Predict the structure.
Amino acid sequence: MKMDINKDCILTINGGSPSIKFGLFEMSDTLVELFCGEIENIGTDHAKFNFSNISINEKTITSIKATDHNEAAIMLIDWLEKQDSFASVKAIGHRIVQGMEHTEPLVASDELVSELKKLSFLDPEHLPGEIKMIEIFRKHYPALFQVACFDTAFHADMPQVAKLLSIPQRYYDKGIRRYGFHGLSYAYLMGELNKTAGYEIAQGKIILAHLGSGASLAAVKEGKSIDTSMGFTPASGIPMGTRAGDIDPGVAYYLMQTEKLSPAQFDHLINHESGLIGISETSSDMRELLKRQHTDHRVAGAVELFCYQTKKWIGSYAAALGGLDTLVFSGGIGENATEVRKRICEGLQFLGIELDESRNKKHGQIISTDKSRVSVRVIRTNEELMIARLTCEIFEHTIKTKT
């Protein structure tokens, strides 16, 4: 693929545990996405390279060999170097899941990378791979400006009561508290809500439901997060594709005693063998589960639990907010699964939620009825664009400061 690019560009890297998502954005008056893609299923025999050329609406999927993040990253760099557009990249923005106390994006300096390495044990599913991406790009392109964008930043100003875990205070002082995640997605959703619905609505009582293979909810009031379902790690909250969500801590002790699980084995269990795939014993993909739910009671149970737990969190956050004005569905499931949205909203009429069946089936921007007291919306999230925006701000600020 060849492009004639004259303007500076931002490259975004979103490195997860099994995947690396990337995107290229031209820095015009507004950021223009040129292409995006993903290396998925890293470390398995089903690794694939997905690529979409936005300008000509062309998509390709290729099977590849990617035994680990290092091999996947090298393959991505080799591919990028063959694109004319890569020569125009001036900065790279990275999604960093755990930012601890950082509330703003930062230049990915040696000091910051060293700090993040010390935090890797807090999120072994994401942080090591994200740090690896920064280091690999730095090794190949030491002059390129790199920025770390933190998923936890959106929740940094939550009230202390929402951050507390009910364990001895000395652990809170050591940083063991509820941080919340999916912050880049939530920041994007709030921006879109402000743009499409207006400032007044965006300042109201809002519940954001980012429902995908990783899933969480956030309660937002006056534009700020006041609570969120993920806590100390992204494994907490509602059940997800392969993550358990909240479970009784006694389960860990019991399984370690009876099944002789090591801490590492238990961590793998709750992050990779639980949630939808654990209950269904079939798949972590909601699309597959919805197809099979009528012929397999285990699959039906997985779908039912996901909808039930999500509904419970909506109810609890309506209480925390003191009411509800807007409910937003996003993420792969939230944006596309008509039945899941319907089942989550069923029985929530007492909160003022009334779904319009036709609008819901058509994935309308607003899927509630005109009479519904609560506006129920579907907004497609774009973490890569949010990363690009934040990176662009830091890059341009740094350039101005130097001049």
Summary: The chain has a mean pLDDT of 93. The domain at 9-150 is CATH 3.30.420.40 (Nucleotidyltransferase; domain 5). The first strand starts at residue 9 and ends at 15. The radius of gyration is 21 Å.
